[in-house]
Input
Amino acid sequence: MNGPNKPAPRPIASLSIDFDNKWAYLRAAGRSDWESVTSYLNIVAERVLETLGQFNLPLTVFVVGRDLKNESDVRAIESLKQLPAHEFANHSMNHLPWMHTMDQREIFDEIVGTHDAIEMSLGCQAKGFRGPGFSCPDEVLRVLGKLNYVYDASIFPTSLAPVARAVFMARTKLKGEQKEKAKKLYGGFAAMRNPNRPFRRTVDNHSLWEIPVTVMPLVRTPIHFSYFTFLASVSKLAAKSYLRTAFRLCRITGTAPSLLLHPPDFLGREDDQQMAYFPGMKMPRQEKLEIVRWALQLYSQSFDVHTMIGQSHKLLGGQATNNGVPNTINTTSDDPTSPDRENHLVQLTTTIPRSTLSL
Ligand SMILES: [Zn+2]
Output
């Protein structure tokens, strides 16, 4: 609560959802009937509209091209235009989480196919891309450059990538070649050496923003809403304290956060039995929506939240650093591993009480 006085300025942030349909989850789980399962996009879209509308939150929607072939799914996706601010972005055609194993042609088709479908079905040009499974080979960036994209959002710089991948591999029923391909999910071990804040990348003379999915500064554990709801299914108190700490650390370290949602964040156990295997899906619907509402409200109070394209524009204009947040975003350097940044980060965080890092 800020009281009657002028509210404190909030750093720039962004919010997105990977609008993955049920078939994508069931295929990833190795279910042979994934193509025939029902869609939940209309239910999720309704709840997204209601929940985000409550806090006047904008949203970037990463759309899978395959869903744009179905009329009722197009209507569900289109309904998100009613949000206070929205952006439709590209999440590939078939949501195959192994783009790093694809040849040039396949990568081109996955990206351009969805780019065209978004234009045809939703009447807008996508300017951002996120690779399924956070897979981001150079060829992806080359195609994004040709399409004049403003940002890529396929990096997830978490220290838990090897753990998340191991859990995925243990649960999935994928076999043979597909199982081999899935071994680099979540960007491989190198992913956590990437910066935890937006940075510039240049490929074939085209410069674009790389906007990572923000993780906890320093310890690099995930903080996006799906991880939060998973933690909340174990302990709500611990999950809330964890998220408060994460937001505080983002502010202290000048990390402009970009957080993401997934459809299961808006679904409870009574909504979909087929999704029961997914982390956090044992929680009843009302409980889930309540905890997600709490987190979104905290996000909207802590940061000046934009769509991802909105955040990119703010970053280019340098406005993201005008809110009392240290200017650590180097808009001219293409070196994502600049040691200065990490040193600066460590300096800033040495003043944080140890207890805030213990979760
Ligand atoms: Zn996805």
Q: What stands out?
A: The domain at 12-357 is CATH 3.20.20.370 (TIM Barrel).
